[in-house]
Amino acid sequence: MAIRIIEENCTGCAVCVRACPFSAIKMENDKAVILDNCTLCGSCADACKFDAIDFQAERGTGMGDLSSYRDVWVFAEQKDGVIDSAAFELLGVGRHLADQLGQDLAAILIGNKVRPLAQQLIAYGADKVYWLDHADLERFNDELYADNLSHLIERYRPNIVLLAATVYGRSLGPRVAARIGTGLTADCTGLEIEADTRNLMQTRPAFGGNLMATIICPDHRPQMATVRPRVMKPLEPDSERSGRILRQQAQLKQDLKTRVLQVVEEAGEIVNLLEADIIVSGGRGLGDPKNFALIEELAQTLGGAVGASRAAVDAGWIPYSHQVGQTGKTVGPKVYFACGISGAVQHLAGMSSSDIIVAINKDPDAPIFKVATYGIVGDVLEILPLITKEFKKALGK
Amino acid sequence: MDYFLTEEQQMIKELAARIADEKVAPVARELDEKEEFPYEIMKILAESDLFGVYIPEEYGGLGGGITEQCLVIEELSRACSGVAVSYAASGLGCTPILLFGTEEQKQKYVPDIAAGKKLAAFALTEANAGSDASGIQTMAVKDGDYYILNGTKQWITNGGEADVYVVLAVTNRSKGNRGFSAFIVEKDTPGLSFGKKEKKLGIRASATREVIFTDCRIPKENILAKEGMGFIVAMKNFDRTRPGIGAQAVGIAQGALDYAASYAHQRYQFGQPISSFQAIQHMLADMATQTEAARALVYATARMIDAGAKDFSKESSMAKVFASDVAMKVTTDAVQILGGYGYMRDYPVEKMMRDAKITQIYEGTNQIQRNIIALELIKQYAGKK
Amino acid sequence: MNIIVCIKQVPATNDVKINKDTNTLVRDEAQSVINPFDTYAVEEGVRLKEATGGKVTVISMGIPKVADILKECIAVGADEGILLSDRAFAGADTLATSAALAAGINKIGQYDIIICGKQAIDGDTGQVGPGLAERLGIPHITCIRKIEEIKEGYIRAQRMTDFGYEVIECSLPAVITVVKEINEPRLPSIKGMMKAKKAVIPVWTADDIGADKDKIGLRGSPTKVIKTFTPEININTEIIDGTPEEQAHKLVEKLLQLQIKVPV
Known about the structure:
The complex is a heterotrimer of chains A (397), B (385) and C (264). Chain A has 397 residues and is an alpha/beta fold.
């Protein structure tokens, strides 16, 4: 066992019990006892003031010399010849990291006849674009894209690889990381370079956003992360910027195991929610599913989209596609109306990066007011129609 | 109170409670408002094996008895008595087949009822025959290998929803109580039809309809026991199922008590929770005591029957009459504790009060139950003289 | 069809309290449950078995107590459960977890399809499914909301995307991850619960499954948590008061001053 309590040193102070993030230590006869669910994180050993916890993190040996891994890569997701806005956000943060490291920022562009997009990636901050073009690569395909991205990584040995935490990015990332045998941190909301070690510090929410964890990948390269969309800010595009566009040979195969037969876009809310400048969201405080009509009316008046809290979705009041939060969509509109939403951390995780947050709730102590720009304490069913009326009047609708 | 349930009974109770809380409670109000039969919930109960708890294993059941059946009924009634009675009425239709059916009849009908693939119903009541079963008008006339049924049954729980009906009809008017016979009638039998769904005060999720026989030809092997046994079939059936009505009443009372007690704790008047007032405390104390007493009597009776007792009409009636009177009282008090809120449909206790009333009426009114109890008492003491 | 379902044990709620002083979770009496997303995986596995015949094996990596959760899966229709439990697995990140699961699944041997939930509610990574597929050298499809067709060696399914869905066909064996739209998990049955009570869950150690010790547990985990903290929220909220009419009026006035473009 790599962890044990040195009983003669243990004073029974129980600091370690409080320090354990996993409730894996208990006190027995005034001595600490490590339980089965210990994950060997070492928090207890750091917290113990009496050297009573012998913890030897038996870490793997890693990949040895990592100095040959250079550059920050961004996987530039595109669909139908349009780059996903999340890719520009990745370039924004990637530029910052590359500058700190004194290395290049490269974008990986995979598709069919996507050469014109390379210039855009450069405008948004890329120094280099590795560009793969083939008819078979037209659409995202886990198998082919994983083959090609892995191949490029093995060939060019990047230091950092970033993907957007989209459905595709979250499918491709772990497959590639497993093939390379390196670490991957999911759904990051913060990325920094650690000054001393020059490791990438990857910060992400855990436990439904209740806790933030900073994670490093010290002994393996590349350091891979998926990054939550609409959290990082893109740079202002500069069409004067210059960069190199490097065409790469695509890796193809005849006997593909997976094939996309049909792509169906479900118009409306889903896309709307992610792109809307204004979102009006409802929660359990609406009291009844039919009161979502009030939400819809305000959203319609403002040309915005309709969102919902998990509680409202779980209650079956509105489909999951409207859900905002840790387990739903992450949104970042200009204005976010939270109507009858108490503001559980799980919800805040999905909307707190909105520019302006308006909270309407009858409970003045509701946590939503802690993140709100403007708060109205009152009956949402009474106030919401009045707001709609005021807007209609002001907008001459 | 700890009733020292067996491990399997505990399992049944917990699963029934989970279904009540997760699947029934969220839709109880809607089912009541829309007077909608709970098909979805019947399906869940079927998939969970709960329709078979009281049915022997050789017919696809779990081999339990009335105790197990009562546990399910009680838990479901906490959330919605209309759902519970739809479940229980299938037992009321199946029990006569278990008690009096031939091996062929049991093999043919019981496994599907145990699996919840088919619902059953028991059809006795008519416009002129309620407490007085001798008023039955429905006739069964023998015609070669068939009986031909004519007449109309009224207020039949699961009427129109059930696939198997056990029906009481007159085979020989001149023989009085020995002139009735019981028949198994399948839903798709030509000549069998159903009246409109009744509008009721409570248990509105359950379906109550007329069951109408118009020259309805039943194969003669569908008779239960033999000609003339109908009255005995009905009485023996009710003896075994009355504790179920008691369990239903206990569940309703428990649901009302749970709601009222937590409401009293949250409701502030005069600057303190109303549960701090002795007036409320004593009401809650009585409600809890009465509910527990009713439960104890119901369980004791169910266990007595399951243990193989021969004669239990009196105890069975006591369980029904006591528990149903308790349910009426406890739900009325729960409404009182909630005050004006209790009277509103937004709160569940008014429904519980409406639901409770039927437990004093059906499967023999409480007046008839008292007659049965008194009759048994008189027999008992007359014999001792 | 031989169906394997991978499940994870998670705290019963992720509305965990945080101790602001130590920045750690307060998880008194924290109850553990099956990861909610995994219940859809179990249900889909059982439905596939009911439709095509075969067997559902549920596998998990975790502490000995996880056996109880595997038994719950048997109560809702799975045929057997297997627990990978060994101190050598402790401290695993997603890469090391997929390595351990892959070794366990290789020991099981026969399989046509492996089903995972979309992600776990404690870590929210969704990385184990694709990682597992890579380790096993088979394809994967994430976020499946409907299986349109499945037969020997072939599956066609709808995968949820950020903009709608796509129809994908894939050869079997494969790993799929499922979203909650795919089904509504059933409650247990009494017969299932009795079967679960009697069931014996085999516990396999790292040696039992022949796992490479450098690929599992802490040793096999490239990533390392160096810090945990409570997210900081500090915004000066302006509370708008007055009558409801005044509140509505003031709010709209303030928002209009921001000159947010309203699409006409």
